[in-house]
Amino acid sequence: MIIKGIQKTSMVDYPGLLCATLFTPGCNLRCPFCHNAVLVTGGDGGGRIEEEDVLWFLEQRKGRLDAVTITGGEPLLQDGIPEFVKKIRDLGYRVKLDTNGCFPDKLYALTKDGLFDYVAMDIKNSPALYGKTVGIEPFDISPVLSSIEVLKSGETPYEFRTTVSKTFHTEQSLREAGELIRGAEYWYLQAFKDSGNILGSGIVGYDEIELQNLCKVLQGYAKQVILRGV
User: Fold this and answer.
1) Within 13 Å of residue 118, how many CA atoms lie on the same side as its CB?
2) Chain segment 106-123, per-residue pLDDT in tens
3) Entry pTM
4) Could you tell me which of 197, 189, 229, 171 has the C-alpha nearest to residue 33?
5) Would you list the domain boundaries of the chain?
6) How far from 2 is each of 5, 13, 175, CA to CA, in Å?
7) What is the pLDDT of residues 174-197, one digit of tens each?
8) Which CATH number fits domain 5-228: 3.20.20.70, 3.30.70.1150, 3.90.1150.10, 3.10.450.70?
């Protein structure tokens, strides 16, 4: 398990809980709006943090932190993630996974074994625009569709989330993305913001009023459609 970074305290990465966030390197996608460009491309990103150092830190924070979020990059590219998550859970923490949904078999195995308490999965765009949005064309969306079904048919609490920009998303493309997850519990629309460390350039975001209007028109695709990050 390779860990490139740690945010020692976060109030936003695990819904309702105070968590530490672990960042893993590498990703199979190249989303131009990704705000973790160095991690995605496998760059140094601040050096490697050893597992035992992470576990020592979490041991010291017992009683002050509630949970751990594992994000990336794409964490399911990592070897040894089941064993590492078990060690975190043995310390009494809840564990959340952030994933792009491209590895349904791994997602199924990990959720079936009850290793994660919460999963946040990206829904990038409509099927027709998925490849453009993830920076890979042509793109086979079938693993993403399988991961959607894994979460919807399983017992692990989850959310779907879409980072929204004018450059890649229209109301119609978001409606088509909504059809992919219809009936889900939660769908979060996340405002695109340029972190200064994105893969692409010239990406334009929606303003808050526009995002609020999109959120309204997309109600019904999930039981709750919620705006985040404005």
Assistant:
1) 21
2) 999 999 999 999 999 999
3) 0.96
4) 197
5) 5-228
6) 9, 20, 37
7) 999 999 999 999 999 999 988 777
8) 3.20.20.70
Question: What residue type is 157 in one-letter code?
Answer: P
Cα angle value 230/218/186 (rounded, 5°)? 70
How far is Cα 39 from Cα 98, in angstroms, rounded to an integer? 14
Is there a contact between 27 and 77 (Cβ–Cβ < 8 Å)?
yes
Burial of 50-79, coded b for 16+ CB within 10 Å and e otherwise, reads ebeebeeebeebeeebebbbbbbbbbbbbe
For the sheet with 158-164, list strands across it: 5-10, 19-23, 67-71, 94-99, 118-122, 158-164, 184-191, 222-228
Q: Exposed, middle or buried by CB within 10 Å (0-12, 13-18, 19+), for 179?
A: exposed
CA angle 200, 125, 19 (to 5 degrees): 75
- Side chain identity, residue 23: F
Site of tokens 């200064």: 196
Instruction: Look at the alpha carbons of 116, 117, 123, 127 in this order and tell me if their dihedral is positive or negative.
Output: positive
**Phi, psi torsion values for 71, nearest 5 degrees:** -135, -170
| Nearby residues of 216 by Cβ (< 8 Å), 6 or more positions away | none
